[in-house]
Specification:
The structure holds 2 protein chains of 2 kinds. By secondary structure, chain A is α/β, with parallel strands linked by helices. Chain A is built from 4 helices and 5 strands, in the order ββαβαβαβα. In chain A, helix 2 links the parallel strand 3 and strand 4. Chain B has one domain: 2-Layer Sandwich (Heat Shock Protein 90). Chain B contains 3 helices and 5 strands, in the order E-H-H-E-E-H-E-E. The two termini of chain B are about 25 Å apart. The chains are: A alpha/beta, B alpha+beta.
């Protein structure tokens, strides 16, 4: 798994590529923790490059979105692939996280 | 039957998962079934490694077999007895602040598989059997 972070308007985009699983989830947690500690609470996880997630990835997202919302921000998801969306749906995450079909919409959701 | 045994350490997790997915595909699993196998085998093996062995490195054994239209995956360990039926059930309709991470893994396993069975191994350990029904193979001509 690889990540890249970029500022887009009010949002900070975390682009994730590869597999979010039991061996890579801690690495992703560290990225979100770092951004939140820096005051970047309006986060978009760009998931179009993620081919797989297990509950390890769900735990990362759950922790990050709780922390972001308690700081007045949010973590929003952009462009999950079919298999990733299925796992999000099975875990009931599509009811608690905002999921957008593409990155532009997710970024625009935070306002200019 | 395709079988792989590795120490229950996280550095072997993806090898066990990849083995199961490859064996499932060789047995005729399509994309959706292969994804289900990937999720379920990772969750069960990771649970054995982190909660069962707690860092000790007992063996994890993954066996994949197709019987008629059913894919059967057995995951064996020598960890303390744990029946996944006793795993906490996540409250999927709870608001965010009340959502807990515990139990999500076993929840996914139950959702992506058609059946999940547990039995004690002898003299110690567990065997979790995952059942996935596959599309019927075309009749031989």
């Amino acid at each position: 798994m690889e990540t890249a972070v970029e500022a887009r308007g009010r949002a900070t985009v975390v682009r994730i590529t590869g597999s979010v699983d039991g061996t890579t989830a801690d690495q992703l947690t560290a990225v979100f923790t770092h951004e939140l500690a820096a005051g970047h609470t309006h986060l978009v996880a760009a998931l179009d490059g993620v081919d797989y997630t297990s509950s390890a990835g769900l735990r990362v997202l759950l922790g990050a979105v709780k922390e972001a919302r308690s700081a007045g921000g949010d973590v929003r998801l952009a462009a999950p692939r079919k298999d990733v969306l299925k796992v999000l749906e099975l875990a009931g995450f599509t009811g608690i996280l905002k999921v957008y079909g593409d990155l532009e919409s997710a970024v625009a959701g935070f306002g200019a | 039957m395709a079988t792989l045994v590795r120490p229950g350490k996280i550095e072997h997790l993806m090898e066990l998962v990849a083995f199961a997915v490859e064996a499932a595909r060789a047995a005729g699993a399509g994309d959706d079934a292969a994804h289900a196998v990937r999720v379920a085998v990772e969750e069960v093996c990771l649970n054995v490694m982190t909660h069962g062995y707690r860092g000790a490195a007992g063996p994890v054994r993954v066996a994949v077999e197709r019987r008629a239209d059913v894919l059967e995956i057995r995951i064996g360990d020598e960890a303390p007895l744990f029946d996944p039926a006793h795993a906490p059930r996540p409250r999927l309709d709870a608001p965010l602040e009340e959502r807990q991470a515990g139990g999500l893994g076993w929840h996914l396993v139950r959702e992506v598989m058609d059946e999940v069975r547990h039995e004690p191994a002898h003299p110690v350990g567990n065997v979790v059997t995952l059942i996935k029904r596959l599309a019927r193979r075309p009749a031989a001509t």
